[in-house]
Write a structure and sequence with these properties.
Helices cover 23% and strands 22% of the residues. Strand 13 and strand 14 form a beta hairpin. The chain is built from seven helices and 16 strands.
Length: 334
């Protein structure tokens, strides 16, 4: 009798394919999928975990760099904000980026007001919806007020009128040139916070990968009940679930100090010596995460890894080297 690895319900003869890497982060050949997740859990993950992750994660924002359709940043963005990284008077302003035709990314600076007491201070920004008297009260007479963003003159005029309403002494001055280069691009920085729903989605990817490598009955062990409850039912503390690593996952990148790949990286390692079973994950090889599946592992020692190339759309198994007492960088095959 086959059972769903998440809810433990009995599986019918036909179930939807559960992708180890969500399809919203790319389709690969061969594509790693599972047939041990029921329809209810599959649908739940798509709407409650994968969809929010597109909006609330660095990885969701990075999709746009590879031509994948989506929106990053914006007025209602939670946990992830895009900010202008160029221009002395524009730096730090909030922005939104979206893919348009043929994977081209269009960037727009949101309507907002910046304020600072003097030219050596950083600018504090307030979106139109957040502009009120309490914001202006922090800046005495003589402070610099800056209006940026918007698509049309009407956006700017509306913001001018709102600013006059909370700061009657405001007098519009000149117009600044936007910090876009000749090709219409601008450097953006990402400010983010790892949300609970993104942590759950990352754990789900790791759990799927464990089921793929270790077999469909392996995750049914009770030692995985805790992480299953966190992923499927949003139960339990999110502390200790996902750790951001300080070093890359790929050994060559640790040695050279340079990132040489832009694809997804997934690895799993069983360590019976310390009873741990750990998945490492880096979507678009951006932020490397370490995700403990259990701290009660008593099986064999093993390690596996796969790489999902954004450039070719191909998945390949990674070479694994154990670092013994005589290990050195020269022993790695390049």
């Amino acid at each position: 009798m086959s059972r769903c690895i998440y809810c433990r319900s009995e599986l019918p003869g036909t179930v939807p394919r559960e992708h180890v890497i969500p399809q919203s982060f790319g389709v690969f050949k061969p594509d790693l999928t599972l047939s041990c997740v029921c329809s209810d859990c599959n649908g739940y993950f798509g709407s409650k975990l994968e969809w929010p992750m597109l909006k609330e994660s660095v990885e969701g924002a990075r999709r746009l760099q590879f031509g994948l359709k989506g929106v990053a940043g914006g007025i209602g963005a939670k946990y992830v904000e895009l900010r202008v990284g160029a221009g002395e008077r524009w730096r730090g302003a909030r922005a939104v980026a979206r893919t348009v035709k043929n994977g081209v990314v269009a960037t727009e600076v949101l309507p907002q007001v910046g304020a600072r007491r003097g030219p050596t201070e950083p600018i504090e920004w307030a979106l139109e919806k957040d502009l009120d008297a309490s914001f202006i009260a922090r800046y005495p007479k003589g402070s610099e007020l800056i209006i940026v963003g918007g698509k049309t003159n009407a956006d700017r005029e509306r913001l001018v009128e709102k600013l006059k309403g909370v700061c009657p002494t405001f007098v519009p001055g000149g117009v600044m040139s936007p910090p876009f280069s000749d090709d219409g691009k601008v450097m953006l920085t990402i400010e983010y916070q790892l949300s609970r729903v993104v942590a759950r989605c990352l754990c789900k990817i790791g759990f799927n990968y464990m089921a793929l490598i270790c077999g469909e009955t392996f995750p049914l062990s009770r030692e995985f009940d805790d992480i299953c409850e966190f992923i499927r039912n949003d139960v339990g503390d999110d502390a200790g679930r996902v750790f951001e690593k300080q070093k890359p996952i790929i050994a060559q990148e640790i040695i050279t100090g340079k990132r040489g790949a832009d694809g997804h990286v997934l690895t799993i390692e069983g360590r019976p010596a310390d009873r741990s079973l750990i998945v490492q994950l880096a979507l678009f090889n951006s932020i490397p995460y370490k995700i403990p599946m259990t701290k009660q592992y008593l099986g064999d020692a093993f390690a596996k890894g796969h790489y999902f190339s954004q450039e070719t759309g191909e998945m390949s198994e990674m070479m694994v080297e154990y670092a013994g007492p005589n290990f050195g960088p020269s022993k790695i095959s390049w």
